[in-house]
Design brief:
The protein is mostly helical. 50% of the residues lie in helices and 11% in strands. It contains 6 helices and 3 strands, in the order ααβααββαα. The chain has a 3-stranded antiparallel beta sheet with strand order 1-3-2. It is globular and about 55 Å long.
């Protein structure tokens, strides 16, 4: 559908706008993006997240607390260890879309378009970390 012929969307209620802005505020930090990216298809404890993003455990814990309050991650306790995972598939899709959008900043064909052309997965999710 052409943007010129699309029906206008209803305005968002102010409380929903505030919640969306909070999600984007949480994503406006490179360390948090790396943390979420580490969790994109995994459930991990703090020490493994810290190793994946190259930050100290206490620093990662502070970021995870903020991400949890913003409902971007959730926890599961197993004995004395706490495991983190993305809150839902929408957060996962938001991250993937962000990476795809960033891939368009270059002059070559983005990896996600090469994947579509060849039918072979070339998505950089597990081989190249965002920002790292």
């Amino acid at each position: 559908m052409c943007a010129a012929t699309a029906a206008p969307r209803e305005p968002l209620p102010p409380d929903q706008v505030a919640l969306v802005a909070e999600v984007f505020r949480m994503l406006a930090d490179g360390t948090r993006i790396r943390i979420l990216w580490a969790l994109i298809d995994a459930e991990l404890p703090v020490n493994e997240i810290a190793a994946a993003v190259g930050k100290s455990g206490p620093a990662v814990s502070q970021h995870l607390a903020k991400l949890r309050m913003a409902r971007l991650v959730r926890t599961r306790r197993d004995g004395n260890q706490i495991f983190y995972q993305l809150e839902n598939e929408h957060i996962q899709q938001l991250l993937i879309d962000g990476v795809y959008n960033a891939e368009h900043a270059g002059h070559s064909v983005p990896p996600h378009h090469r994947e579509a052309a060849t039918g072979l997965p070339s998505f950089t999710a597990r081989t190249t970390r965002v920002g790292g």
